[in-house]
Write a structure and sequence with these properties.
Number of domains: 2
Organism: Caballeronia mineralivorans PML1(12)
Number of helices: 9
CATH architecture of the largest domain: 3-Layer(aba) Sandwich
InterPro entries: Solute-binding_3/MltF_N
Number of strands: 14
Domain Solute-binding protein family 3/N-terminal: 38-266
CATH superfamily of the largest domain: Periplasmic binding protein-like II
Radius of gyration: 21 Å
CATH topology of the largest domain: D-Maltodextrin-Binding Protein, domain 2
Signal peptide: 1-27
Order of helices and strands: HHEEEEHEHEEEEEHEHEHEEHH
CATH class of the largest domain: Alpha Beta
Keywords: Signal
Shape: globular
Strand content: 25-35%
Distance between the termini: 53 Å
């Protein structure tokens, strides 16, 4: 094949790939979902107490909230249970209509996503082994700390580390280790491979509840925020459909019952919208 032909072939392939990407990146409207008969959502598979698999069955706060939404939404909800790393990218490319998982709302994420009415409040804390000398955020100086890759908790940890450096003359966390999922981080914490793990207070409380002789929750290292399901930026039509149900579940108290069951607290002062 000549050089010119090869260039032309590469250009055609590139254009075809770009066209495919643009097509897959379009977000379905509620009318399009109703026409095809279903809504596609992605849910994390290992993030207790929000979404996890127990005895082969998906359970947790978001899954039970989804069960209530299914009764009212008027179309089938096809759910893909998968690791966190693939969920948000799947929404941005249009593979999934919604990230139906515990997504922390951040200013950075608002550039790419719009969020449904929040499902709970959240703040990033750190956890340690029960016998650890680490008691305060300042004690993390010189220590190894873990968090889930791509998570808002990792961003909070990095921001907190910058605050530590300013406060302690350049001395901050010794190393930040990123994990694909939190169970691996907790395993390393128990084995002493990391000194602390940063996660939401709700998730760390759940960890301590299941292993009270091993772990303790430390202090906050992030600012209060909200957790919400996410759609591709600009997909207001779908948000309106889902928000009407979530707000109804607040009004009739069913959301707060699930919060108390799974999260150990109720969040009745949340705003209707976080966008």
């Amino acid at each position: 094949m000549g050089a010119l032909a090869r260039v032309v072939q590469v250009s055609v392939v590139t254009l075809m790939a770009a066209a495919t990407l643009c097509s897959s990146a379009s977000a379905a409207t509620s009318a399009e979902m109703k026409a095809r008969g279903y809504m596609s959502v992605a849910t994390e598979d290992d993030y207790t107490p929000f979404e996890f698999v127990s005895d082969g069955v998906s359970t947790g706060y978001d899954n039970e909230l989804l069960a209530l939404v299914r009764k009212k939404i008027g179309l089938e909800v096809k759910q893909q249970v998968m690791p966190w790393a693939g969920i948000l990218p799947g929404v941005t490319t249009g593979k999934y209509d919604m990230a139906l998982t515990a997504v922390l709302v951040t200013d950075e994420r608002k550039k790419t996503f719009d969020f449904a009415s929040p499902t709970c409040e959240s703040i990033t804390f750190f956890a340690t082994k029960k016998d650890s000398p680490i008691k305060t955020g300042d004690d993390l100086v010189g220590k190894v700390v873990g968090a889930e890759t791509g998570s808002a908790m990792l961003s909070d940890l990095k921001s907190f580390n910058e605050e530590l450096k300013k406060k302690h003359g350049g001395a901050g966390v010794k190393q930040i280790i990123e994990y694909q999922a939190y169970p691996e981080a907790y395993q390393d914490l128990g084995l002493g491979r990391v000194d602390a793990v940063a996660n939401t207070q709700i998730s760390l409380n759940s960890l301590v509840k299941t292993r009270p002789d091993t772990f303790v929750v430390g202090q906050a290292i992030g600012k209060p925020t909200y957790i919400a399901w996410a759609v591709k930026k600009g997909n207001a039509d779908v948000l309106k459909m889902v928000d009407s149900i979530l707000l109804e579940l607040r009004k009739n108290g069913q959301m707060y019952e699930l919060q108390q069951k799974w999260l150990g607290a109720t969040y009745k002062d949340m705003p209707a919208s976080v966008n």
